Amino acid sequence: MSRLRRTLATAALSLATLIPAGFAAAADLPVKAKKAPAELPFFLVIDDRVSFSWMPKGTDPGMWSVQPNGSINGKTPKQVYSFTHFDAWAYGTNFFTISMFKSGHNDPASPCIAPGLTSSFGAGDCAGATEIYGLFRSTFGWNEIFNTKAFTMGPLHNISFEVGMDANTENNFLAPAKRDMVAGLQFAFDLPYKGYINVAPLLYWEFLNHNAFTQCGTVFAGAIPGTSCNSDGNVSYRPTWAVEVNYYMDLGFLPENMQFWSISGRAGWYGPKGDSNGLPALSGIGRFSTASKTEFNSEPIRLTFDASKAFYGPKYSHFVDLWVAYRYWQNKFGLDHNAMPGVCTVAATGQSTNSCTESTVYGGVTVKF
Predict the structure, then answer these.
(1) 286 vs 160, residue with greater confidence
(2) pTM for this structure?
(3) Which of 26, 81, 183, 210 is geometrically suited to a Cys-Cys bond with 177, CB 3.0 to 4.6 A?
């Protein structure tokens, strides 16, 4: 899996914070005769978008090749196609995204187990793998649930309950099938220029994943189910902690004729969840460790140009966005980038495969419909 995942509709979220004020102002206008109040729609905001992006230096742990000069190449380009949905209703918000990641040949699809190598250990030139990744997050605001403003003070805009889930599948030999859930709180803070920053401490539980390399019956695993192999390749990890942060802000300090720019970003920390193999007999190999580590998945900054507003005016704000971002992902999937033999490091030498940390600049276009 790569997540990467996990991209937010930041402009829509910013718009959502303005909706309650707009309705309140309308209610305060004087009227000549009493009329039944207009019924508000169930969804105050609905925002759907599609995106295409190009990631020149993506990674997939364990997928690497040796170059003619002896160096290790753990990078692969990825095309990313995404659909995102955001809505705001009377008691909170919902966000959903589903993405398809199409890798280059250095991250091959099954039956290859590595670039140029099939599962029968013969030569093979397999196409790049395709991953489907989905994520949703829902919030339930305390101000709305308890009909109060007690949870708005200073820069704090609201406190919410938050729940969510992630799921993925990929057609490589590993055949991951990640299923996780999160639950906790979200603290929403206001930023200047219609901006916000949300901080969410969460409980994270990856209750299912698949690892073909640990499945009984393959040449890579042992023969004792639950000790040296998994009968079906499925692994369940222990619950752990997580913190997710995302922000958005218009660059409103620019001259009015240049106010087409905004910045946004996100970061997620996910605590150790147990042995990466899920097997006692494979909990360590010599000087290497297979214990999971804290995972850091981030896009610290994305610079967005509102092309539709620039060319067609404010009425079409964020209908077409062009953007460039930086992505940094360490200990991908919780794998220790300094250990994890055969995946993050070469088992014989301990040399890094450069496949368990992702660091890349990438860009794309997003269209609202």
Answers:
(1) 160
(2) 0.87
(3) 210
